[in-house]
Amino acid sequence: KRLDSLFDSEAGSDVTFLVGPEPETWRFPGHRNILSEANPVFRAMLQGPLADSGPTVAIDDVDGKAFDLLLRFLYREDVVLGSIPTALATLYAAYKYLCAGLVRTCVLYLNDHLNTQNVLQVYQHVRVYCSHHQTRDLGLWIASAPPAPEDSTSASYSVGVDKDPNDNLDTMSCLCSSLLHNCLHFIDTKADQVLADESVEDLTADALRDIALRDSLAVSSESVLFSALERWCNRECKRGQLQLSAESRRSVLGYDLLFSPRYLLMSAHQFLSGPMQSGLLDQAETAALMAHILNSPIKQAAPSLSPETIERLRTPRRKPFSTPINLSSTKCRKDKKGSSKKTKTMKKQKKVKCKEDKPESPNKKCSGSCFLEHLCRVLSCVFD
């Protein structure tokens, strides 16, 4: 209750945040001790060795509304998201400030509101966080200043936020990876509707390539994928101020995207009315592929069509076999205490088993005759 009353309050405020680029900068009052106790990034920003002790902190790369929701969560933990763009902007702010609780709120909202019009937007946004975590290139998301040392004299505020940045990072990565899995499952199972939506034209080349090369992409026909690629490369040429020539469009697509459709699964009519008419394939490629479709392959194939490529272009895609992850019940944090207890129990059981399996030593010592018998056997083996 005490923190609720301090949210959006100038009372006791000792720092002001100016968020967003000019002229759309938002102003927020804040309290150093509360924010430092609630969040490790704010602690580094406001109380760390490299912290700015001035009354104003400028933050240019976060949306004003998203920062408002971030502060609301840290003070009150009652954030309500109203749209996909707001959820994505807030997810960026939450990830940047290592706020795992708010990341979970955003991920759950996005997962519950996926549809054929927004799944590609969510997918492209979330895959950035997953790739950054995998490569450990996290300079964009974590404050450069180290966290301030614990001060027993500072005021303590109970806000229910995890103080361990590593735990936060692992939790956020798990949540985003799970959401990415669900996005790809949605795209796989509703491929025709997703690829027909205009949002496919806004994807980056890498994001589109990852989708087009999926074996589990359940398109009703490979011509659906080719049509999406043709629309995308035309839009990409316009964005790059390139001529809409065959050379420019082939260059924009690149080899992987150009040969991501399984052309040899098309009918002759689909190939003639789509890829052949588009001009994206050269004459040698068109002739070689058409010959394979008609079951009369020519001896001199196009240089770009290796036997491995031909084999891939005729291999049917498999049906999606994965299932969506239930994010509401996903536990992304490791139970270290339970794991340690389990490990100790296993070691104890193993020790007991080894003790049981070990043969008991005889209580009485070997007699002299027994010793001489063994000695004779050893000598006979040596001089044999």
TrEMBL record:
Q: Name one GO cellular component term.
A: cytosol
Q: Which SUPFAM superfamilies match?
A: POZ domain
Tell me where in this chain the BTB domain is found. 13-83
PROSITE patterns, A to Z:
BTB (PS50097)
> Ranges of Basic and acidic residues compositional bias?
354-363
Query: Cross-referenced InterPro entries, in alphabetical order?
Result: BACK, BTB/POZ_dom, SKP1/BTB/POZ_sf
Q: Where is the composition biased (Basic residues)?
A: 331-353
Q: Specify the protein name.
A: BTB domain-containing protein
Taxonomic source organism: Cuerna arida
